[in-house]
Amino acid sequence: MKLMNALWLENQKLSYRNNVSPTSPLPAETLIKVRLAGICTTDLEMVKGYYPFTGIPGHEFVGEVVESASAPEWVGKRIVADINLVCGKCEACLQGRSTHCQNRTTIGIKEHDGVFGEYITLPVINLHLVPESVSDEKAVFVEPLAAAAQILEQVHILPGMRVLVIGAGRLGILCAMVLSLTGCDLKVVVRQPRIKKILEDCGISTISNQDVSPEMADLVVEVTGSPDGFAQARKAVRGGGTLVLKSTFNGETSVNLSAFVVDEITLVGSRCGSFLPAIRLLATGQIDPTPMIDANYPLQNGLAAYEHASRSGVLKVLLKP
């Protein structure tokens, strides 16, 4: 296969290259042409050193299978794919906890090239078919939407429960959209007028930072990616309540663990989720994330796309190879 265009991350420096060699698929893998990819906060944090990585970044995408020796029925199909590649043999995998595979690699994050290139190879078992009713612009949100929906797998949310989302950015908005489907008493802390409109158009109540008061919520979802946001979330959760952490960022946070013990706060780390519920939410029209799209750049302008995505208040920036 000829050399391809791609973004390349090395020593926390991002560059555009037109001479990257695509990886040839192994017998149980497929070769996928990337149709559309999205830049997320983790991609921006990778440049800052969130995780040491050399290669092609990016993990949110929709693509088309162009080669599959072991499963030719996938050729020509439009797909999204689980971002964790697992061994299927370790204790976590055998216990059905494959997202915690002890030998996993992660596309665009850990030991596997990502989707900010023209092609990617992935195992057949990672693929999920995209329904015809779901556009590329919606399908590119499947991975972060799945991460948002994972909250519902971890915490039992009752109608009327007081829920607060702090951090109305790319992932925070999706978390709010998912939580709103439970009938809970949901509020989202918002600073940007545009984000306020996106949420209120979905029937979701918004408040300002000044409206956040101690112990105002039974459940707080923290998606700020900052120590200050964590502190605010901790203040807002009531005694005996639950704090869900969705943030990934480069740095450390000082935590008073004694206060968590005394106040009996349940702390829940929340990462990846199942793609099937996310695809269903998009296919049924229960969630439409496309108002979050700010820009669409060709891959060769990927550096400009990253700069755009890093600006304050910008939501989703897309890349098209």
Topology:
Blueprint: E1 4-10, E2 13-20, E3 29-39, H1 41-47, E4 60-67, E5 78-81, E6 84-85, H2 91-94, E7 105-107, E8 111-112, E9 119-123, E10 127-129, H3 136-139, H4 142-154, E11 162-166, H5 170-180, E12 185-189, H6 193-201, E13 205-207, E14 217-222, H7 227-236, E15 237-245, H8 257-262, E16 266-269, H9 275-283, E17 293-298, H10 302-309, E18 316-320
Helix pairs in contact: 4-5, 4-9
Number of strands: 18
Number of DSSP helical runs: 10
Strand content: 25-35%
Query: At CATH's second level, what is the architecture of the largest domain?
Result: Alpha-Beta Complex
Q: Give, in order, the helices and strands.
A: EEEHEEEHEEEEHHEHEHEEHEHEHEHE
Ends distance: 16 Å
Uncertain stretches: none
Mean pLDDT comes to: 95
Relative helix content:
25-40%
- The level-1 CATH class of the largest domain: Alpha Beta
Tally of distinct domains: 2
Tell me about the largest β-sheet. Answer: 7 strands, mixed
Q: Globular, elongated, flat, extended or rod-shaped: what is the shape?
A: globular
Under CATH, the topology of the largest domain can be stated as Quinone Oxidoreductase, Chain A, domain 1
